[in-house]
Design brief:
There is one protein chain. With 295 residues, the chain is an alpha+beta fold. The protein is 66% helix and 7% strand. Strands 2-1-3-4 form a four-stranded mixed beta sheet, sandwiched between helices. A hairpin with a 5-residue loop joins strand 3 and strand 4. The protein is rod-shaped, with a radius of gyration of 36 Å.
Amino acid sequence: MRRMVSGALVALTLILLLGSPARAQDEDFEPGQDNHLSWVSYDEAVSQAKTKYKPVMLYFYGDEGKDLCRLAETKIFKKSSLKTQAKKFAVVKLSSATEEKLTDKFSVPPGEFTIILTNFQLKEITKITSEKDLKKLSTFMKKAYKENSNQSKTLKKVADYYKKAMKYKDAKRVRDCVKILEAIAALRGKVDSPYIKKADDYLKQLEKAGAAALSEAEGLINQAESSLRQAQRHGSRHFRQEYLNNAQQKLSLIAQNYPVQSLMKRRTNAQARLAQISAEYQRLIQQEQEQDQDP
C-alpha cells in the first residue's frame, strides 16, 4: 500500500513539475507556424488574383486569438476537404500584430484571429472570427469560390459587351448602344471594371446633351401653346403650325440620338403636351367649320 501511495506521489510530482502533455503542447504552440496549406506571400496572392482570377484566403494570426489559431492550425487546416478547397485559392498567412497596413485595409483587430475570403479583386466575401464559423470554413470557401467565379465571368462579359456597344455606336445604332451601356452601368458596385466607368461617362454625356436638346424642344412647345391660346381667342389662322412641327421634329431627333432611360419621363411628358396641343387645335378647326355651316 505504501508503495502504491509513493508511486502516485511521484507521478503527481512529475505532472506538477513538467505539466501534462496537453498543457506542454499548448504552451509550445505559436500561431502562424502552419505548413499544411500552400501558403504564398500577399504580393503573390494579389498577382494570382489579378492574372488568374483566383479568390484569396487571408489568415490573420496573433497571440490575442491564440485559441482559434490553434484550432485552425492543428485541426481545421489538416482536413482533406479544406486542403481541396484551399488549392482553388491563393492562401496567405499574416501576423495581425505586425501587418498594420493590411489589418487596417481589412479591418482586423491587432493580434486577433481572423480569416477573410475575398474575390479576385480583393473585395471581402466572408469574414470568419468565431469558432462556430471556423468549423464551417470549408463550406464558406465553397460558396466564396462560386461567387468569385460568377463575378469573374461577369467581368469578362462586361468587357465583351462594352466592345459590342462601341461597334453599335460606330454604326450609328445609338439605341442598341445605349441599351447595352445601361445594362453595364447597372452593375455599378457589384464588380469593379473600367468599362463600367466608361459606360457611365458616355451615358452622362448623352444625358447632358439630351437634356439640353429637350430644353429646346420644351421651348418650342411653349411657343406652340402660346400660339394655340392666341388662336383660341382670335381664330385658327393665328396658330403657328411650324412651332408644333419643329417641336415634333426635335423630339424625334432626341428619341433617336439620346435614348437614355433618365430622360424617358421628361421626353414622354413633352410628347404628351404636343399631342394635347395638336388635339385642341384640331377641335378649334372643327368648331369653326361647324359655325361656318350653320345657317
